[in-house]
Batch of 3 targets.
Target 1
Amino acid sequence: MKPWISAIHAYVPGKSSGADGRPLIKLSANENPLGCSAAALEARSKVAGAAVYPDPDAKELRSAIGTLHGIDPARIVCGTGSDELLNLAAQGYAGRDGDACDEVLFSRYSFAVYDIAARRCGAVPVEAADKDFGCDVDALLGAVTERTRVVFLANPNNPTGTYLPASEVARLHAGLPSDVLLVVDQAYGEYLNADEDDGGLALAAAHDNVLVTRTFSKIYGLAGERIGWATGAVHIVDTLNRIRGPFNVTVSGQAAAIAAAEDQAFVDAAREHNTAELARFTATIEALGNHGLRAVPSKANFLLVLFEGAVSAQEGLNALANAGYAVRHLPGQGLPQALRITIGKADDMDVIAETLRDLVEGSA
Ligand SMILES: Cc1ncc(COP(=O)(O)O)c(C=O)c1O
């Protein structure tokens, strides 16, 4: 194995069962508790057979995405989830030449795939300090060196749910050398209200060195189909097209995503559900502040809950597993004191809130 590959810690996916193998309700992978659009399910079920390769260029899907977002389809590339596209962005623009390694920069506590994407092409991952668990633009800019080739920004960020407004994203872009690629990962972008747009798509439309990635896995509820897309200057799209899998989005995935893109009523309903339940759950955690729980303010479909009192995150994880829920404990990402809890259905959020309340109040 190449030494930079052996240095990779494989991605740890969210669990769906307890330590004893018992199935749990999965709130550990930021999936959509409402499922997906009925139209997407229907389109997927109508796909005939599986013997023929999909459209390698996902033409109809790129056209549907272009129509929805007002983007020329020539500036869009689809991927096997946005994961593929994040990896391709690193591979296309960073690597190593003998002992000289490029650097891929991102904020502490950001998406775990960035570290893997950097290492798998032989580049060096560099973490900038966070600010209150979120991205600190000054720290990122301060960490840029002449070897920096790619900067990843998840906005909103996973696993913290933090978010940078458009003015800060623009300031980050303006402070980067023009030969550094800024990747704005908007996997949770659709959860933002219209007035919270971070300006990433406009930057990608206007500049030569910005790529925005999006996914059908989160608000669209199609994580199982593995469909992502990215947009940027034609030369960046060309780079990704050269190295992507030739048939990287399945026939059923393309059909489902086209129908999903056309069903914005489902997206609006999913956003409304998330906004309401996220606010309700955040308020519950804040009310337990005197028992050592703290919520990191989130703009995504999950909440990072910090255990800073007598009860540990591990105890929280165990109590929630006993109550029937899998959530995400993050010691491997430097957050042993935190649980990331995906916003589920209202009834499930009630049980989770009650379980955590009983746990911390019981320990008082
Ligand atoms: C910030 C962020 N980016 C990208 C992804 C990748 O999603 P997918 O490959 O399903 O599009 C995720 C998934 O959890 C994520 O949290």
Note: The chain has a mean pLDDT of 96.
Target 2
Amino acid sequence: MNWLPLLLLPVAWIGHAFALTVALNIAYSCPVHRRFLRTFRLLIGIAVFSFAFAFPWWIDRLTHGPLRLEPITAWLAICLFSGLIILPVQTLRRNLRREPAVVASRQASLLDLRGQPLGFGKHWRLARLPFNELLEVEVSDLTLRLPRLPAAWDGLTILHLTDLHFHGTPTRTFFDAVIDHLTQGPTPDLVCLTGDYVDTVRHMFWIKPLLGRLQWNVAGLAVLGNHDFYCRPSGVRRELRRAGYRVLGNDWTQLEVRGQPLLAIGNETPWFRPESDLAGAPDGPFRLCLSHSPDAIGWAKSHRVDLMLAGHVHGGQVRVPVVGSLFVPSRYSRKYDCGVFHEAPTTLHVGRGLSGREPLRWNCRPEVSRLTLRPAR
Ligand SMILES: [Fe+2]
């Protein structure tokens, strides 16, 4: 009995699933219709499981040959390379990755809302699966030391919320409890919202009573996400304005913060076009960009953005121990799934979001972030 195929095929299957998941991630980063994406996801799922059903055929082929260079053997080689080399090396690099030097401190506390009703919104059955962390909110307190931050802004605070996905699961009581907790703390200078507020048109009427309760010293800023794009975006913008937010869209505005100018930039691409035109924007001010997707990092770097806030990818929502996230709807796949990244001149903070259209979170708690900015030493 030749045991080699029996050892290699499970690894090739993992590589096969990983390669197809990367393809799915890239497809989900594109502004294509959700119906196409759902069909593509179904096909990928079928392709992943059909590999296992072909095990006897693979074993016969590998054991008795002939093994010629043809598309099916070439794909097997790619899967083996992916399962043996790419996935382990990428996972190791991710686990060894250090927090960038701009992160001066990080603390997290748990807002445990288990016991709140789960409701009957979209995919409500998923919310009832065991070990779901949907109602365990992590409040992250981060201090960032940023190179171009004006000295007058030492200690400036930003509350960053993203991906609330109002649709009924979790219920409004859950979001009320989160807002209650946030309003009990110090008032932030800026409140920044980076999109995906609703998954149904009728839930846009939660925006004002919930997000309108947040207070700020300087401004509340907002951009829309891909889920808002599919739920009457003009209505979402109207409700955000009614709640007191400046909806940046794909545009910029200049604010004065503690006597210093701040360029606040919105980026709602690729779902809303055209992207912000910064040709007429002043050069000097600190540049803060709110982008729904972290995929705009290249654009932000080329436009000398100092701090970019993003969401969209939900940290992957399901994180496998050691391996981490897998399904991350980004052209960079799981590279910017959550956390802080610094690629000069831009520091990127990607929040895991508060909820999701699919209310399931394993090993990936929902998150709200409070950032304190300090000038670099
Ligand atoms: Fe989202």
Note: The first strand starts at residue 103 and ends at 112.
Target 3
Amino acid sequence: MSDPICCVCQEPAGPSAKELGGRWYCAAHYERATKDRRGLWQAGVAQIVGLLALVGLVELLVALVHPQLEGVWLMVASVVMALVPALVWLSFFYQQDRLEPEPKGYVLGVFLLGGLLAMAVALPLTRDVFHTASWLGMSPLVNIAGSILVVGAIHEFLKYAAVRYFVYPMAEFDERIDGIVYGTAAGLGFATALNIEYVLRSGGVDLQAGIISVVVVALAQASFAGVTGYFLGRAKFEHRPIWWMPAGLALASALNGLFTYLRGEVTRGGISLTAGGGHNPWPGLILATVVAVAVFATLSILMRRANQKALAQTAGGAQ
Ligand SMILES: [Zn+2]
């Protein structure tokens, strides 16, 4: 009988070979692939709280100081604001990373790639090829369908591509949970690009409404990419059925589209859509927070359960 080969290092796995989802692992790579990282979930919760605190801080500052920013200064302040969720995330990530290191270059690379794909592909495609602005508002049904099948699908496929065709085949992607780490990085890069584009297109934004919008987009885009990342993480280390990855992308696209539609509905208050006064961003922030908490709690439970199952199999199996 030939010795099973570890699917990560391609070395003979020896007598301590372990099986996970139909593939063989050496003892060391099995342990890495199924590692549960409590610190990561704690950092995730801390980031959501941190972003909400940031909204509170900006609202308070603007209410107290009443800054009269115009022109270039408003633009600079708006762009800085658009960058803040990414900076908050990176600082939490690097903090947590001292305990359980992840190759920083790749995390940053996925983040930048997500942003680049948003700028170079997602925005031109939805705006100039699909002209979504001209028809999404036709009816609620058209809006929901278009938000899922066009906008959601384009967004989520590009975030998927940023991970799948860059870091996924590499040795640095060595834990199932890495899918969620890199997915979130791609989603946040994507969100940052959308936010910067929004700020530049508007020529600077009202800071109080702007900070809410920036945080909503960051929470939402990172959450949906986290879903795709979960599917990617399991696909790399286990044999999954052929529908696995398409199902993951479809789920992320559906969440993205439904969120975009619902956000539009809950923030549209009052009489006029164009006269600013009819727009209330707060319900959008509540919606985004609920979505982010629900997605990360679900992924945390699913991942922990998968890892416990693997451990139980090991304990009950050979030796
Ligand atoms: Zn190995």
Note: The mean pLDDT is 88.
